[in-house]
Structures are given as structure tokens and as C-alpha cells.
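Hello,

Following up on my earlier ticket. Below are the two sequence lines again, exactly as submitted.
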Amino acid sequence: MNTTLFLQQCLTGISLGGAYALIAIGYTLVYGILRLINFAHGDIFMMAGYFMIFAMAVFPWYVSIPIVLIATVILGVLIERTAYKPLRSAPRMSVMISAIGVSYLLQNLATYLFTALPKGYPEIPILKKIYNFGGISASLVTFLTPVITIVLVFLLLQLIGHTKVGMAMRAVSKDYETAQLMGIRIDRTISFTFAVGSLLAGVGSILYFTDRMTVFPFSGSLPGLKCFVAAVIGGIGSIPGAVVGGFILGIGETVLVAMGYSTFSDAFTFILLIIMLLIRPTGIFGEKVTDKV
Amino acid sequence: MDKTLTTNKKRNMILNIAAIAVLIGMITFLQFNSADYTYQISTLERACCYMVVAVSMNLLTGFTGLFSLGQAGFMAIGAYVTAILTIPVESRPSVYYVDGISPVIANLEVPFFVALLIGGLAAAVIAALIGIPVLRLKSDYLAIATLGFSEIIRALISAPQFNRITNGSFGLKNIPGFPNLYVFFGIVALCIVLMVLLINSSYGRAFKAIREDEIAAQSMGINLFHYKELSFVISSFFTGVGGGLLAMFMRSIDSKTFQVALTYDILLIVVLGGIGSVTGSVLGSLLIIFGREWLRFFDEPLTVAGVNVPLFRTGFRMVVFSVLLMVVVLYYRRGLMGTTEFSWDGLFGWFKKLPSRFGKRTDRKKEDTK
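Thanks for your patience. The regenerated structure is below:
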């Protein structure tokens, strides 16, 4: 493998990793606050893909993108309100089962509304334009994805660290009940978290599907699981961790595909997960939690 | 008081015997009229395959409190082992037409019950190995790790490198079915009875103690890891057997059969039936598998008074089905049975209470909140 080809593969990996990172943040935020694996997050990402197809059928891309993002946010908040809010005081297992139920519902709904056949993802001409940098040629989206990821993560960290809403989010994730006693509106904060997570999933969906060209009802489930793994590897609850985890998975997977082991690329993710859970269950950036009786 | 107790006991025994007789009668009826009832029989058989897996998942999730999502993976192991061992030797060249068959398994053929047993044991051995690291994890981490494991199994099965054993993505076919219905239902009943006996034994009580409170159980002298591993291994054994039964029922399998969706189906059966109730899982699997068939009319175009109702087309059934399940998850979290088991006393008590359920609404509310 020569240097150019190697760099080319690295770029593909980083680009895929960027999209993974954006989705992984959604998992990490929700887990941080509700201690819930939001199984439906991958399907929200899939629905965002379908929203784009329909938006692009009518509007130009610069109108479609905001529409898709708004629709995705509405979907995310709607799911939180209907499926998770009634279970606030229920055992964690019930909420997780509810999340699985939502994921099942969204997949079946997508199959019903849009049929199980893969639908072509609309091309945004500017994003698909091929650029050449020192022998490495790739479409603009490949170069753009990591940049967008880093910018969004920076903004998100500012939001969480330096605004009132961010402070509320941190408080709720630290201690749910005390936060409530301090006058923080729990439901609003949680809805806001879902909105942010869904927004990032919407951006991730545009970047991911522009490279993949097709969307089908199950195209969210495996990337969704992988992004959760990315969040766990980085340390669940930590945003930089989710980003690092996303990049690790993206690059690792691309390397395996380049070496000709594409069938094992999915297995690789989960082997990495199991190894990580054994060595350091709290992930790279996670804090150590001690159990109290 | 004593007298009513003994008469109740007598009545229950008679009812039990009658129920078993009715079941055997039904099976005999289906066996002799199998040509007329192929559709019903195949639905029932599918429900029974899921039943074994659902009860075994309940053993793990409902009774030991370990939330595992690896069912599809263990079913795949059981199914592939059973299939590889039972496909008739003479039809193997046509099954492995792509890359040929590995010489190790080329002439290995055993009777189906031995194959099912080996399939279950294979799943159990792998569960024992994977359990050592994975069972150290807590609730949702365990769920995601077992889910990941199930995906790894699926990736390995469909990998072209194993074409000569699992036939890769082409799947296995020509798997022999069951000689008759008695054998099939006998195996299903045996599996469930064995699990019920286990749950009612001292091991079962240790499992329940772990479910209620791990730390309390540990301080009562229960070796947490030992019992968790035991529950995981036994549950995986029966899941493997269930997978083997499914392979024999379907006659042809491939890696796509054992996707995460299969695990979710089983989970939803367990939830609908009630987490922690064996009879609940039994009822749940019958309801869900038959429910899917009953709801089939949603997939057909419907015309009311000459107007075509636009909602009714392919896929609508599954939407209705998943909405129903969400309703159960959100509003009837206990499922059909909760953690109680079916009993004749409970059934008669329920009938006695029935009028009051419709009578005073305030009373009912009070009962529900308890």
C-alpha cells in the first residue's frame, strides 16, 4: 500500500468517523442524563435520511437542510415526550424496552410508508464535487465531515459549559432529584437534550448518506449500534469521548475494509466493545463510579 | 377452611388433567388432519419455537435480573449446529454447491434429537466462555455486550471464510423436519417443564434473590458469579435448542434469519407476557405469533362501500402491531401476567372479581395502584 492510497484510506476513515461521532454524541448526551440507551436514535438518523429525500424532491438543498434538521428535532422530542416521559419513575429496564419498542415502530413505519426497497439519496452537487489535494482525491463531503464535526463539538462544549441550559443539563446528569429541588425544569432540560442529540443525528445523517447514496428502513440500526459502541469506548457521558470513539471506529472499520476483511468490519466494532468493557468499563474518558449500598 | 383447600386442590388436579388431555387431543386432531390445517400447524409450530426461547430469556431476564440481548446469536449457534448435523449426507453436495463441504463434517450425521442436544450444548459452552468476561458488566452494558456478541456470531456465520462449514451467505437448506407433531410438542413441553423445575428449585430461589438485590443476595452467601453464570449457561442451552427447533421448522436457514430483530421479537413476547412469568411467556408467544397472522388483513387492500381505504396496504400490519406493543410497554408495564403464574385459583378469582371491575371504577383504581 503506497502513501497516497494510505492517506486516501485515512481520509475516508476520518470522514466516516466524523459522521459516527455526531451520532455517538446523541447517545452519550441521553445516557448522561437518563441512563438510557436510546435504541431509537439510529432510527431517528434513518428517518432524517428519508426526510432529506422528500425535502429535496421539492426544495433546493439550502432550504432542504434546515427543513430536515427541524423535522428531525421534532421527531426526537416527540419520541421523548410520548415514549420516555411517562416512564420517568419506572425501572430502567422498562425504559430501555420502550426504546427498543420505538425503534421497532420506526422501522416498521418506514417500511410501510417508504417500502423496504432502498431509495436513492439525493445528491447535493456542491458536496459531491471532487477535489484534489496532493494526489488525494475525494468529494467535498469527505473533507468537510471532520471539519463540521469538530466545529459542532466545539459549539456543543461551549453550550454545555457556558450557558444556563448547559448548566441545567450538567446538573440533571449529576443528580436528577437534587436538580429538581434546585428549581431546574427536568422535563424541559431532557427535551432540550433530545433536541440537541437529534439535531446532531440529522447533520450526521446528511453527511453519512451523501457518501452512501441509498436509504432503507434498516439502514439506521447497525450504524446506530456502532455509534453507541463508539460512545461506550470513549466513555459514556463524555462528549470528547464520543468523538474519539467515533473516529476510532470509523478509521478501524475503513482499515479492515481496505485490507479485504469487510465481512468482519461489523464484528470488529463489537469485539472492540467487549475488550474495552473488560479492560476499562468506563471508557477512555469516563469517570470511575463506585457503587454504594 | 381446610375442607375448601382440599376440594380446591382436587378441582385443580382434575382441571390440570383435563387441560393436558385437551391439549393432547388437539395435537392428535391436528396430526390426523394435518393436510387441512397446514397454515394453523405451521403458525403453532413457530409459536412453540419462540416459546422455548422466550421462556429461556425469561429465566435470565425475569428470574435472574440479567438483561441479555444475545438470543439471536445463541439461536443461530443451535440452529446451525442442528442443521449441519442433520442434513442428509446424500443431499449435502447440493447444499454446499458453492465451495464444497469441509471433510470434517462431510459424513457426520446424527439423529435429530442428538443434534438438538449438541446444538444446545454448543450454545451453552460458548455462553460459558463469553459469560466469564461479560457477566461482570451491569444491566445495560450487559445488554449491549450480548447484543454485540450476537452480531459477531452472525458476521462469522456469513463470512466467506467459513463457506465450507456454514455455507456463508447462501444459507443451509434441506434440513429434515419432525417425524410427527407429538415429537415436536413433546420436546417443547420437556424444555419448558425442565426450566420450570429449575425455577422452583433452590437454584431458582437463588436466581430470584439475585434479581431482587445483588448485594443482599451476596451477603446471604450466594456466590453471585457462580449463579449468574449458571443461569446464563442454562438459558443459552435452551435458546440453542429453540434455535435448533426453529431450523427444523423452517427447513432452510441463513444468517439473515438471526438478525437483531429476532431478539427484539423474543423480548417483546417476554414483555407482553410479563417479565418473570413462565406462563406469561407461553401465552405471549402464542398471542404474538398468532396475532401477527390475525392482523394480516391489515396488509390486504380494504374496500368499504366501494371506497378503497388508503391505509390498508403491505406493511400496515406491522405498524399496527408495533403500536399495540408500545401501548403495552407504556400503559400495561406488567404485561399479561406480571410476575404471577397462571393458576386455576387465580383464574376463578379473576372471574369472581370481574363484575366489580365494571361496577365501581374507584375500587378498580385503588387496586391498580397497589
